[in-house]
Amino acid sequence: MATGTAIPLAQYLASTYEPDCDYVDGEIEERNVGERTHARLQARITAYLLAHYEAQGVEVFTEIRVRVSPSRFRIPDVCATIGDPGEEVLTKPPFLCVEILSPEDGMSRLEVRIQDYLQMGVPHVWVLDPLTRQSYEANLVDGLREVKTGVLRTAVPLIEMPLAGLWG
Predict the structure, then answer these.
(1) CB 135 within 8 Å of CB 127
(2) What is the distance between the alpha carbons of residues 32 and 1, in angstroms, rounded to a whole number?
(3) pLDDT of residue 3
(4) Does residue 15 sit in helix, strand or coil?
(5) Which terminus has fewer CB within 10 Å in the chain: N or C?
């Protein structure tokens, strides 16, 4: 995966990328997306969260820009807020960020993404690997840990998402 050349923040914010790219300390970072299994899992997670939690005030977004720090923007595969965030680019921490791995994703790069979310104040990060069908939860207290119960969870508000129906 290529990392682009340095560009000013204003240029990043005024640009459109297909797919959208992260902005990390002045450089554009491409994201691994586009595989069928990635897209299908992203759609299933989004559909599940909307079907089960939208009536409770949970807003669900795919591939929205999140300003995790003054010099970093991340594009989670899926994220959720409690209520309407009222902004086009999220600057307040979402309640949940979900990352779906692609075969090219490396663990060190993933760990940096997770830390960006947690340091911003995102209380829950889920990571799903469609290739191995493993899933992980991350938070500031426990760090990153594999989920072996078959259900991804958040605290208040309680969100539970069974994994069995997602892998398809």
Answers:
(1) yes
(2) 8
(3) 52
(4) coil
(5) C
DSSP 79-120: EEEES----SSB-SPPSEEEEE--TT--HHHHHHHHHHHHHH
Query: What angle (nearest 5°) sits at the alpha carbon of residue 84, between those of residues 143 and 98?
Result: 30
CATH code at position 65: 3.90.1570.10
**This prediction's pTM:** 0.91
For residue 34, give both structure tokens: 């586009």
Residue 92 lies in a domain: yes
Task: Specify the pLDDT at position 45.
Answer: 97
Residue-wise pLDDT tens digits, 67-104: 999 999 999 999 999 999 999 999 999 999 999 988 77
Domain that holds residue 50: 35-167
Q: How many domains does the chain have?
A: 1
The number of CA neighbours under 13 Å toward the Cβ of 20 is 18
Task: Give helix then strand counts, H and E, for the chain.
Answer: 4, 13
